[in-house]
Amino acid sequence: MRIARFTTGEDPRFGVVGGDLDEHGELDPDSSVVVLAGDPLHVGVHPTEEIRRLGDVRLLSPVLPRSKVVGIGRNYAAHAAEMGADVPSEPLMFLKPNTSVVGPGDPVFYPRQSQEVHYEGELAVVIGRICRDVPAERAGDVIFGYTVGNDVTARDLQRNDVQFTRAKGFDSFCPLGPWIETELDTSALRVQTFLNGEVVQDGSTRDMIFDVPALVAHVSSVMTLLPGDVILTGTPEGVGPMEVGDEVDVVVERLGTLTNKVHRRD
Ligand code: ZN
Q1: How far does residue 122's CA lie from ligand 1's centre (Å)?
Q2: Which of 56, 186, 213, 263 matches a 20 to 30 Å C-alpha distance to 130?
Q3: For range 120-147, the mean pLDDT
Q4: For residue 92, which phi and psi values (nearest 5 degrees)?
Q5: Contact 128/134 with Cβ under 8 angstroms?
Q6: Contacts of 11 (CB under 8 A, 6+ apart)
């Protein structure tokens, strides 16, 4: 099931999106959106009688993380190598503030403090229930679903600061969307990033060093996870700069396409 958060000009609502993905990971604008009563993350999935056309709604970030977005560094060996770094022996965690989250189609603002802003296309995990110390084999019980993420990073600031808070924490540095897919086998999904239509990242979750259940176990062994928290699972190789005016698509197989454009921050 695909769950989107959307607006038609009023308060955000949620809906179940129908239709089949095309070869670009996109849906026909005529696809249906069955409007839900309340937030399915908190009250379950309760369809109403109201049905909208996908092309007539504006999609928003499918989740507003209640407390945190947890990023995972160097979770693909080829990406660790391109960063000139070793593969970590345990998942390398960092946090992005929930204020960095934006939705599909929202601008990514290029900060004044950076001259090197990179895209990082990633599979994102959305947590469905409060949990701590989750064993890997029980991870599925606490996962609400999956979405697409772009872990936007000011690479120059990341190098200078050593720790990641500023480099990955700017407003708009965590696009998520276009919806949450609640049923997905994440063991071998293609993850691609396109910069102005040219493929720049082309990896598979098969090559993750720590898979989704291992990440949920590791993160929850450190901090309590709340419904709506998000874990970004790391990026494959091919990270690189994006400039003002560039359009970035991140496509996760069987999930969808997240598109954002880079804007100057006035
Ligand atoms: Zn990342």
Answers
A1: 7
A2: 186
A3: 98
A4: -95, 110
A5: no
A6: none
Asked whether the predicted pLDDT for residue 66 surpasses 90, the reply is: no
Which residue spans of the chain are classified as CATH 3.90.850.10? 69-264
CATH number assigned to the domain covering 69-264: 3.90.850.10
Greater pLDDT, 100 or 10:
100
Q: What is the pLDDT of residues 203-231, one digit of tens each?
A: 999 999 999 999 999 999 999 999 999 99
Torsion of CA 121, 123, 126, 127, to 10 degrees: -120
Distance 222 CA to ligand 1 centre (A): 19
Which residue type does 116 have? E
Which two tokens mark 146? 């999956």
Q: How far is the CA of 247 from the centre of ligand 1 (A)?
A: 18
Residue 163 CA from chain centroid, whole number: 21
Q: What is the pLDDT of residue 80?
A: 87
* Cα 163 to ligand 1 centre (Å): 13
Residues 6+ apart with CB under 8 A from 244: 110, 262, 263, 264
